[in-house]
Amino acid sequence: MIRRWGWLLAGVAGGALTLLIMVVLPPDRTIDNPAEFVLRISPVVFAVLAISGFPQRPGPGLALLGLVVLGYMGVLDSLHMLRVLRLADASDQGAAFPAFYQMAIFINAFTILAVLFGYRLGGAPPGRVLRLGFAATLVLVSGLNDITFFYLYDWPQGRPARFDWASHITVFTGSPATPVVAIAFCAVHLVLAALVLALPWLRSRVATAERSAAAAPR
User: Fold this and answer.
1) How far apart, in whole angstroms, are the C-alpha atoms of residue 145 and residue 142?
2) Fewer CB within 10 A of the terminal residue: the chain, N end or C end?
3) The whole model's pTM is what?
């Protein structure tokens, strides 16, 4: 019973945590400690677990994907634009930025989960969905978008020496990351993501090597 409906329990947990972060708690652009990092990434993890076990039915699946598109274009896109405009019009942009940042992070997570949901409804088995979901989560927290922003943005006062805004990196490095540290942090996460995706291939290679070793004359 738990195995059959586990996806729903994970979905409820993910939804409740999303409401807590997006509605109940005040917007916050910084992560102050590892426990807060776990809290903020947990809705994504629960969503990955829920999607991996979501029932695969072609008719309802097509309708659900249509709802995902409608939900994004009809709700999330407008909410995101409203926060952009409020930030642009705010007299105190420092105070207005956390609400914008909160929505930007939510949009990133939603995009990943929408792709994962389509992959599952397209026939992907739970194991593949989990691997893709966890690999995508590693990319989400890798700081890749922070690095591209750092090098693509035309900084009025020149590029800063450290990634002061990337608190999800700071909480693990102990201080705001330099570009070299941020790139290393990102590289580690991307390698881990690749390893997660390649797990079946790695297992088959290990099994083949073990069989070859066992069959070799002694």
Assistant:
1) 8
2) C
3) 0.90
